[in-house]
């Protein structure tokens, strides 16, 4: 069984300094934290805050392609957790043709926010990985993450290997 979720916050893991997207069920009883990359966190945060880039970012491009090709993004489902990695599916429809596309949850969430698409998580995933809800911490975590983003520059995303 799947549970509809909403993006509650973007937070920063205090130990690893990695961003986390926090999903909550619609009744605010359960929260599902998913560790994500910096670029995806920024894309999700931009969508949450209604910010528009001067040029389309990757998820804006995906949403634009869907619109231009009359491809409806019906839902995303975070369907499993394996070896500490979450897995998601993007369900699309064009006419009567329906396709499921494998996706990282962070990319699926960023696309869902841009296309007003419902976000779902399987009950088994929530049961395994959910945390107690603490609504007071959300705004402080969001502010800490904004401060962290302000310190980033493009070289932070370049690998020196």
From TrEMBL:
Q: Which residues does the UniProt record annotate as the domain BFN?
A: 2-133
Query: Entry's PROSITE patterns?
Result: BFN (PS51658)
InterPro entries, alphabetically? BFN_sf (IPR036104), Bi_nuclease_dom (IPR003729)
Any one Gene Ontology molecular-function term assigned to this protein's record: nuclease activity
Protein name (record): BFN domain-containing protein
